[in-house]
Write a structure and sequence with these properties.
The complex is a heterodimer of chains A (117) and B (108).
Chain A: E1 4-7, E2 10-13, E3 19-25, E4 30-38, E5 45-51, E6 57-58, E7 67-73, E8 76-81, E9 90-98, E10 107-108, E11 112-116
Parallel strand pairs in A: 2-11
Antiparallel strand pairs in A: 1-3, 3-8, 4-5, 4-9, 5-6, 7-8, 9-10, 9-11
Chain B: E1 9-13, E2 18-23, E3 33-38, E4 45-50, E5 55-56, E6 61-64, E7 70-75, E8 84-89, E9 102-107
Parallel strand pairs in B: 1-9
Antiparallel strand pairs in B: 2-7, 3-4, 3-8, 5-6, 6-7, 8-9
Classes of the chains: A mainly beta (117), B mainly beta (108).
């Protein structure tokens, strides 16, 4: 159990366009979802935390108008990269906490590789 | 989150035990220690977590020192598929802050 999926697994887009990435918890309800970004040979960097039905909390230095996060249901969160530029090319990973879980275990998705040309 | 410190890289012979240390000297009394690993171009995979007592599951064992300032993840019989970056995390709340992790290379 506790499977998280992401769609698409990879995407190539042109500079200036917007890209939406979906994160779904397949077999559990997720009260909190997290979005991370990972550049080559670097660690995961937390971008934002989202709770179902409320606004996301962004980490310092992450532009909320550029990275739009929507957590409309207990099984779906979306990250939209608006007006993408080549420097936004990265590996984007989401994770989720299971609703009612007593521990802080996060279940991670497989990641989405974004390339902006 | 308590700050965690791990060696940058380690090698281990296939079939031998891999012992991966983590220092978390600023950990508070109610912070668990979590271990994840990330195989190239995939999302992190949960391995194990603990608070005070040593823990074991089908993947690994976790040894936590009595003062809780450090821990060791043990893969009892490392295989080539265990080659990955291993992260030790001590979250105070639901938010994870990833350090650099240890890049484990299992050698044939």
């Amino acid at each position: 159990g506790a499977v998280v999926s992401q769609h698409p697994s990879w995407v190539i887009c042109k500079s200036g366009t917007s890209v939406k990435i979906e994160c779904r918890s397949l077999d559990f309800q997720a009260t909190t979802m997290f979005w991370y970004r990972q550049f080559p040979k670097q660690s995961l960097m937390l971008m934002a935390t989202s709770n179902e039905g409320s606004k996301a909390t962004y980490e310092q230095g992450v532009e909320k108008d550029k990275f739009l996060i929507n957590h409309a249901s207990l099984t779906l969160s979306t990250l939209t990269v608006t007006s993408a530029h080549p420097e936004d090319s990265s590996f984007y990973i989401c994770s989720a906490n299971r609703a009612g879980q007593a521990t802080y275990e996060q279940y991670f998705g497989p990641g989405t590789r974004l390339t902006v040309t | 989150d308590a700050k965690t410190t791990q060696p940058t890289s380690m090698d281990c012979a296939e079939g031998r035990a891999a012992n991966l240390p983590c220092n978390h000297s600023t950990i508070s009394g109610n912070e668990y220690v979590y271990w994840y690993r990330q195989i190239h171009s995939q999302g992190p995979q949960y391995i194990i977590h603990g608070l005070k007592n040593n823990e074991t599951n089908e993947m690994a064992s976790l040894i936590i020192t009595e003062d809780r300032k450090s821990s060791t993840l043990i893969l009892p019989h490392a295989t080539l598929r265990d080659t990955a970056v291993y992260y030790c995390i001590a979250p105070l709340n639901y938010k994870y802050i990833f350090g650099t992790g240890t890049r484990l290379k299992v050698l044939a």
